[in-house]
Amino acid sequence: MTTELSNIIILFLLVAVVVLLILYVLLIRKYKKLRVEERRHQELFKRMDNEQMDHVHRNRLNPHLLKNSLNGILSHAYQTYYTMDKLAMVLDYVLYESEEELVSPKAEIEFARNLIEVNKVKLSPLFDMRVKFDIDELNESLLERPSLVPLMTVGLIENAFKHADFHHPDSFISIVLSFRNGLLELTVSNKISKRSPLYKTKGGIGSKTLEERLMLYYPDRHELKRFVENDVYNAYLQIRLYEN
Known about the structure:
56% of the residues lie in helices and 18% in strands. It is α+β, with helices and mostly antiparallel strands. The protein has a domain at 72-240: 2-Layer Sandwich (Heat Shock Protein 90). It has a five-stranded mixed sheet with strand order 1-2-3-5-4, covered by helices on one side. α2 packs across α3 and α3 packs parallel to α5 (154-163). The protein is rod-shaped and about 140 Å long. 18% of the residues are buried.
């Protein structure tokens, strides 16, 4: 009886040990699973916090961007004021100074500068615009003496802006104005399309009026050339203001 009881107790203890081992293993697995879940939740919350903070930072107003925007607005405002000022000078010259029989080369040259600046507004900043002034400013007596019929430069300059082929990738406008030793020279070149009126006339819009004025005021002291070559319209005007 004692032996049988002992066997039962031993069996019971073995079963208890096995059950405890099984429970221990299950508890260990459960604990590890809980730890994994806890880490996953912590990483998730951390990622959410980072994303929320990133969202907050992304939506904050950047003062440097605002300053750049302000500078851009001021730049456009200045450009508008600058252009309006040049336009006012052009209108003053056309309405008042051009009423005089003769103006100084200096006044006509300044008018040409302002006219070019006003017309440049409609051009892209990337457009190939070439402007050069070669003025002998040391000889003030010739530069400021009324000796030039007003608005002699307007036609050739306006034609360049009116009829340039702005859609061509190689489009350009070139204007060179010089005044030295009483000799005024204006060279204008620009890319044109075959549909341009300049291509058909071989002269230019208003060219007849310009020729008539040159013949009237400078019959033997001027030269006017206009021609088209390789889809480029070229015009050259030379006026010797004083007789030799």
